[in-house]
């Protein structure tokens, strides 16, 4: 770990230098013809961005807008592998928000312009906090309450390492949170009230005046391998195996155990791992269910690996009014203004 102090120091210096150049306008950024809502974080790993993207798409559609989702496409499968060149998150979005156009492109400016061509009049930028080449009208930054600075804590007397990559999991210094329009604290259901309040106090010291929204990832549905709907109660008292390739596998396991299941084995692979048949040679030992996430399910189905799928959805526990006000304040592009004018004329 100590050998990583020097590269982490250089990473932090580079991140601060780059941020300062953008802050001063010395590095250029481009604006789309439609508003951009960025969902991001300051750490590597899963903070729950995809559930928030899904929530935002629904909220924007309720406002009569046509949101499109723009992401980098990390871990996208090659075209010849039958996944359409989209990664696991994009394929999950295709199921959950089928009406929203999606573009994956490492060049976010080109990807955003493509979404506008596809008819999007607002762009939801997934994992975009550090991608400052594309200007945004709203920056929402997620912090995982179970490990706010990336790494989980060790022993009770040993706090989590708070350091830049590669020693820790920070992409930027915590002070970068001052750029956000709102901070969304996720997985608050998995920490104590004292831990939650201590974290809120710390965030308010780091980024004074920033609104803090509290969110939880609530189990929503359980699907059998054949797609049939099951009750979440079917997990209570059952011994299960887990498999996941997500940014925070510990949170997934804690959610399953909170539903009353007993986890016999959890095979946790790196985020966006491409499964192969050899990953499942043991099968479901002893007749135990294999339980996975909605993000992983799209890949397991391609391998015909039978798994029960636990779907979760984002629930705003406190501060929903803040998010709604920020969305209501987004500037309207030409197309939605025309639609609203036409609607007003028809009812005038």
Q: Mind explaining what this structure looks like?
A:
- There is one protein chain.
- With 348 residues, the protein is an alpha/beta fold.
- The chain folds into two domains: 11-217 and 315-332, 3-Layer(aba) Sandwich (Rossmann fold), CATH 3.40.50.300; 220-312.
- The protein is globular.
- Strands 1, 2, 3, 4, 5, 6, 7, 8, 9, 10, 11 and 12 form a twelve-stranded mixed sheet that branches.
- Helix 3 (88-96) crosses helix 7 (294-302).
- It contains nine helices and twelve strands.
- The longest helix has 19 residues, at 5-23.
- Helix 7 (294-302) links the parallel strand 11 and strand 12.
- Residues 79-84 have low confidence and may be disordered.
- It starts with a helix and ends with a helix.
- 31% of the residues lie in helices and 21% in strands.
Q: What key phrases describe this protein's structure?
A:
Rossmann fold, 12 strands, 12-stranded mixed beta sheet, 348 residues, alpha/beta, 9 helices, 2 domains, single chain
């Amino acid at each position: 770990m100590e050998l990583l102090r020097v590269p982490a120091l250089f990473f932090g210096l580079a991140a601060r230098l780059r941020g300062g150049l953008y802050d001063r306008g010395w590095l250029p950024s481009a604006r789309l013809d439609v508003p951009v809502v960025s969902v991001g974080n300051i750490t590597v790993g899963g903070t729950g961005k995809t559930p928030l993207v899904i929530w935002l798409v629904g909220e924007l559609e309720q406002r009569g807008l046509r949101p499109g989702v723009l992401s980098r496409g990390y871990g996208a499968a090659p075209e010849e592998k039958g996944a359409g060149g989209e990664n696991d998150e994009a394929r999950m979005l295709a199921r959950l928000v089928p009406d929203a156009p999606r573009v994956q492109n490492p060049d976010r400016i080109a990807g955003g312009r493509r979404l506008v061509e596809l008819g999007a009049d607002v762009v939801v930028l997934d994992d975009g906090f550090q991608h400052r080449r594309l200007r945004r009208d709203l920056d929402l930054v997620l912090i995982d309450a179970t490990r706010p600075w990336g790494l989980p804590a060790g022993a009770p007397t040993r706090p989590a390492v708070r350091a830049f990559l590669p020693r820790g999991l920070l992409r930027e210094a915590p002070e970068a949170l001052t750029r956000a329009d709102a901070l969304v604290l996720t997985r608050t259901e998995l920490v104590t009230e004292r831990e939650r309040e201590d974290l809120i106090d710390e965030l308010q010291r780091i980024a004074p005046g920033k609104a803090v929204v509290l969110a939880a990832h609530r189990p929503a549905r359980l699907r059998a391998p054949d797609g049939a709907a099951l009750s979440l109660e079917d997990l209570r008292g059952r011994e299960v195996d887990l498999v996941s390739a997500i940014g925070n596998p510990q949170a997934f396991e804690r959610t399953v155990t909170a539903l009353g299941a007993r986890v016999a084995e959890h095979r946790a692979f790196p985020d966006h791992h491409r499964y192969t048949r050899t990953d499942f040679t043991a099968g479901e030992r002893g007749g135990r269910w294999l339980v996975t996430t909605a993000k992983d399910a799209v890949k397991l189905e391609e391998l015909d690996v039978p798994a029960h799928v636990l779907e979760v959805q984002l629930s705003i526990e406190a501060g929903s009014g803040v998010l709604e006000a920020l969305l209501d304040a987004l500037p309207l592009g030409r197309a939605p203004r025309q639609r609203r004018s036409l609607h007003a004329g028809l009812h005038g």
